[in-house]
Amino acid sequence: MRWQGRALWGLGEAAVTFGVVVLLLVAHQLWWTNLRDHASAQRRVQQLERAWGAGDGARAASPAADTSDQSAPARTATDGTATASQGYAVLRIPRLGVTAPVAEGISKARVLNHGYVGHYPRTAQPGQPGNFAVAGHRNTHGEPFRHLDRLRVGDTVSVETATARFTYVVVRTLARTSAQDGTVVAPVPYSSFHRSARLSGRGYYITLTTCTPAFTSRYRLVVWGQLTSAQVR
């Protein structure tokens, strides 16, 4: 029976060791990467603000062309070459205390996993006619859209570039839709899965998207806003 007791003891030690390793991996993913990527994103915000203050905004305001899509509803997507260091705008959500850099493209590896908010390719740029559509992580990697579900109609979202600051007001939210609901980022956004969820008429819109429920990527949460003011630097 002695060998059986030793075997059970060994199995118990192996199980405890495995559990500790799993907990460490979870802590790394949920805590350390979150802090690291949030800090990296905030440094990029500071770099942009310094460049704009020094009059070096032209270089910082030129988005690259990353069109890869791995995280949110997109209309079309191909691989691209942008990197997170190419953030070119700053998005602020006062209600949520969010300040995040915006980079071109919605690739997880190249953009979103660095704490950035990613701009959907082939949607409008900030302040332009149409729909400026962006995606961001809700959990881990800086999670800029962690509490996006707390936004309400009337809340403001601002986007700063090298030349101007654009303020949008939230006009509609969609708590849950399919990850394939690509029309939410159309020039005049609407949901192809929820007929009553739509904006009407050409205008200057912003769309914010993220995964929902928390810690899953099955559905998408969508917030729509409309431009109310533009202040030139």
Question: What is the beta-strand fraction?
Answer: 25-35%
- How is the CATH topology named? Sortase, Chain: A
The CATH class turns out to be Mainly Beta
Second rung of CATH, namely the architecture: Beta Barrel
Measured as a percent range, the helix fraction is 10-25%
Distance between the termini: 81 Å
**How many strands in all?**
8
How many domain units? 1
Number of helices: 2
Shape: globular
Question: How would a textbook summarize the main sheet?
Answer: 8 strands, mixed, barrel
Taking pLDDT < 50 over at least 5 consecutive residues as the criterion, the unreliable ranges are 18-24, 58-62, 64-84
Write the H/E string, N to C: HHEEEEEEEE
Structural class: alpha+beta
Q: Could you give the order of strands across the largest sheet?
A: 1-2-3-4-7-8-6-5
Question: C-alpha Rg, in Å?
Answer: 21 Å
| Mean pLDDT across every amino acid position | 82
Oligomerization category of the chains in this entry: single chain
Under CATH, the homologous superfamily reads Sortase
Mind explaining what this structure looks like?
This protein has 233 residues and is of the alpha+beta class. The protein has one domain: Sortase (Sortase, Chain: A, Beta Barrel). It contains two helices and eight strands, in the order ααββββββββ. It has helices at 2-53, 57-60, and strands spanning 89-93, 98-104, 117-119, 130-135, 156-160, 164-178, 204-212, 219-232. The protein has an eight-stranded mixed barrel. The longest helix is centred in the N-terminal third of the chain and has 52 residues, at 2-53. It is globular and about 80 Å long. The relative contact order is 0.14.
